[in-house]
Amino acid sequence: MTVFKKHVFVCVTGKTCPLQGSTELVDKMKDLVRDYGLKKEMRVNKAGCLGQCGSGPMVVVYPEAVWYAFVQTADAEEIVRSHLVEDRPVERLIYKPEPKK
Ligand code: FES
Question: Does the beta carbon of 5 lie inside 6 Å of ligand 1?
Fold first, then answer.
């Protein structure tokens, strides 16, 4: 068994992300990884709350630890193509949390 080249986690069981479309998003991302023929080297997993409720759907991609916020199902293709296939994170979707006061 090999380690995945990239591993995507989508919050689907927290209090807010599921209400913001994360269930549809994770299904779409899984379909795209399959369609791009990446299933052996990349994985999309359903995740619990990622601790950033209200900014979802939240997605994090490892090993880069790139966090995405407010990701819509329509954004899934861009993340898979640009980040997973071309290794170029999608700047416009990268999470920019409020600085702690
Ligand atoms: S509900 Fe998704 S980060 Fe908490």
Answer: no
pLDDT tens readout for residues 46-99: 999 999 999 999 999 999 999 999 999 999 999 999 999 999 999 999 999 887
CB distance 95 to 57 below 8 Å: no
Q: How far is the CA of 63 from the centre of ligand 1 (A)?
A: 20
Half-sphere exposure (CA, 13 Å, Cβ side) for 95? 22
Quote the CA–CA distance of 45 and 54 in Å, as a whole number.
20
Could you list the beta-strand ranges (E) of the chain. Answer: 6-11, 42-47, 59-62, 66-68
Measuring CA to CA, which residue among 41, 42, 39, 61 is closest to residue 50?
A: 61
Sequence ranges of the domains in the chain? 6-93
Q: What kind of fold does domain 6-93 have according to CATH?
A: Glutaredoxin (3.40.30)
